[in-house]
Amino acid sequence: MTIDLCVIGLGYIGLPTSVLFAQAGFTVLGVDIDTEKIARIRKGECPIHEEGLPERLRAVVENNRLTVSTTPARSKAFLLCVPTPVTEDRKADLSFVEAASRTVASFLEKGDLVILESTVPPGTCRDVVAATIHELRGFSPETDYLLAHAPERVIPGAIFKELTENVRIVGGVTLEAAKEAEKLYRQAGVKDVRITSAEVAELSKVVENTYRDINIAFANELASICRKLGVDVFETIRLANFHPRVNVHTPGIGVGGHCIPVDPWFLIHLCPDESNLIRTARTINDSRPHQVVADILAAHGAGNIKPIGILGVTYKPDVDDLRESPAMEVIHLLERAHRQLVIHDPFVPHMSNASLEEATSQSTVAVLTDHSAFRDFRGPKVLRWNGC
Asked: Which helix (H) or strand (E) element contains residue 42?
């Protein structure tokens, strides 16, 4: 069977992307090192929670538009959709990108297209992907194959809508690479594609998430200011936002997900002397779980040995995504304080140790994730941090 597209990494981005291309008529090979995930997908089972994904996945697997494996195969186009976390010292961990590049190099032929979708520090396409392929094959992205960066810009819960309707930034190491990548995404139904250089595309994605992190940090710092002044932060923000050029975010328990709490560190380590504001924003947002724990313990009472009810462990409502979840940090801090927790999250059963009824029957209940199922729950000792 001829493969039109080989996708490396079948996580929250790679799997929906594979399905999108398969639905558009491409013959797609999805590759992942997780053998259990591969086995489930082959049976048409969806390993992640995403609206519309199970039905779409089952259809493209059944009609053989999407096949999966632990090893790649020959293809004219390769998408790298692997994670880029940070290390313990907050530096970009590009080992997955390097490993994917090594894997692809073994199957790459002259004239092929390689697209890196992972969010990365500026320079990664040239310094990691191109350098790795050159080391193994002697190929250059200027003369032998096409290399581009097209960072994903989607949010869990609305991935298929955003895959096609959000503007797609495509940066090529060469103009020809950018144009070929643009053509590929348009064939998959992406409506608006903007081409640029690889370095600008890499930096633009990091800038987007850093901008959001800074604005969230302002809202969270404002919450601390209002607490000290004895002022309602949510009413303050609501009224301030009537100004036509003001849009203050809603404070919360911290920042989670695979991008916003991670990507600013790329800039901090690349330009430490020029990123003071960015570093401060990260410090503010990372400290929020500690304030949340202080709120919970104050409401519960220092001598109260009864369990604390916890609703929600994911980083955002109505998804099963635990990556960088501040709710998980709150739970760890409470456990470190030797508090017994009764936890319920309908999207993450393996993290739940109680039913919704058991969790909400506790004398103190903390709503850490605003899942739809929790929004009508109220009580005298129900703690929320998002103004709902």
From this structure: helix 35-42
* Residue 129 located in a structural domain: yes
CB-based contact 319:347 (threshold 8 Å): yes
Give mean pLDDT, residues 301-327: 93
Distance between CA atoms of residues 364 and 359, nearest Å:
9
Q: What is the DSSP letter of 73?
A: -
Q: Among 187, 205, 223, which residue terminates a domain?
A: 205
The rounded distance, in Å, linking the Cα atoms of 212 and 234 is: 19
Of the listed 46, 81, 259, 316, which one is catalytic?
A: 259
Domain annotation covers residue 214: no
- Among 37, 81, 125, 205, the one annotated catalytic: 205
In a shared domain, residues 21 and 128: yes
Whether residues 35 and 157 fall in one domain: yes
Considering the domain architecture, whether residues 48 and 152 belong to the same structural domain is answered as: yes
76 torsion bin: left (phi>0), alpha (psi -120 to 50), beta (else) = alpha
Establish whether 205 is a catalytic residue. Answer: yes
Comparing CA positions, the residue from 375, 285, 273, 369 lying closest to residue 328 is 369
| Domain membership flag for residue 60 | yes
Is 271 considered catalytic here? no
Q: How many structural domains is the chain composed of?
A: 2
Query: Residues 203-249: pLDDT tens digits?
Result: 999 999 999 999 999 999 999 999 999 999 999 999 999 999 999 99
What CATH number is given to the structural domain containing 93?
A: 3.40.50.720
Strands 66-69, 113-116: pairing is unpaired
Residue 13 lies in domain: 5-205
Q: What is the largest CA-CA distance in the chain?
A: 70
The phi, psi pair for 102, rounded to 5°, reads: -65, -40
Does residue 259 fall inside a structural domain?
no
- The DSSP-derived string for 273-304 is GG-HHHHHHHHHHHHHHHHHHHHHHHHH-TT-
Range 345-353, long-range pairs (CB < 8 A, 24+ positions): 345/311, 345/312, 345/313, 345/314, 345/369, 345/371, 346/371, 346/373, 347/49, 347/314, 347/318, 347/319, 347/320, 347/371, 348/313, 348/314, 348/320, 348/322, 351/313, 351/322
Are 194 and 314 contained in the same domain? no
Q: Is the pTM of this model over 0.85?
A: yes
Domain boundary among 160, 175, 205: 205
Is residue 388 very low, low, confident or very high in pLDDT (cuts 50, 70, 90)?
low
